[in-house]
Design goal:
single chain; 92 residues; mainly alpha; 3 helices; 0% strand
């Protein structure tokens, strides 16, 4: 299994892991896929790498989605507060 992992990493390069993310978590995903599928050829290795990358990106998007929504909500509240403040000053 480790040989297959090494081949995949050698052929396709480093994983799509940001510096703020856990590279070992990506490696666990890749290892689990290799153990489940046990690739017999180049095409199967390619598909495993694609599945690992897609899974990792989906996990990332799932993790960041609530952060983006929260940030937009906070910004909207800030804009509304500024608008209310301006409207209060404009009234006689």
């Amino acid at each position: 299994m480790l040989r297959i992992l090494a081949e995949i990493k050698e052929v396709w390069g480093p994983p799509p892991v940001l510096s703020s993310e856990d590279a070992k978590a990506y490696d666990r995903i890749l290892l689990n896929l290799v153990q489940c599928i046990v690739p017999a050829n180049f095409i199967e290795q390619m598909l495993i790498k694609e599945a690992a990358d897609s899974t990792w990106e989906q996990v990332r998007y799932t993790r960041h989605k609530p952060l983006v929504m929260e940030r937009r909500f906070r910004n909207q509240r800030k804009v509304e507060a500024q608008r209310q403040k301006r409207m209060g000053r404009e009234r006689p």
